[in-house]
Amino acid sequence: MELSAELFERTIRLFKGDSSAIKHQRRVHPRVGIRCHIKIVPVEAGVPAGPIEVWTRDISRAGIGIICSQKMKAGDRFVVRFPRADEAPPLALVCTIKCCSQLSQGVYAIGAVFEGMRVEKAEPAPAAISAPTPASAPAAPAPTPAAA
Length: 148
Hints:
This protein is mainly β. The chain has a single domain (5-118), classed as Thrombin, subunit H (Beta Barrel). Helix content is 5%, strand content 41%. It is built from 1 helix and 9 strands. A 6-stranded antiparallel β-barrel has the order 3-5-6-9-8-7. It is globular, with a radius of gyration of 16 Å. 18% of the residues are buried.
């Protein structure tokens, strides 16, 4: 999955990062260095586990790099939520880990790709994670209140 340019720009606008580094990269999806404290929710057998606090390293239209105190393995999944500038619910992205390398004792660099979006309310109740919604699929419309 790849975030649209508009969604990517709206997401990273809230964070301070090193956008000047993009000019010097030859990647298909250049990374933007972003340092912020966020929570991820690991998904085990389709069920969300307890949240883990991590630091972001960088983000691109196709994935995210994080620093975590727990070792994870390629193929593991997690959900990351990004705040939005407006009153909309956070942007929730399902990620699949591609690599995990130990930087020092209890410190791991993890690279993950975005697999899909989850449509969530402001504070979602834990629920089983099924196949992610493709980015190209429109979100389900919100129910309209009945006329009085």
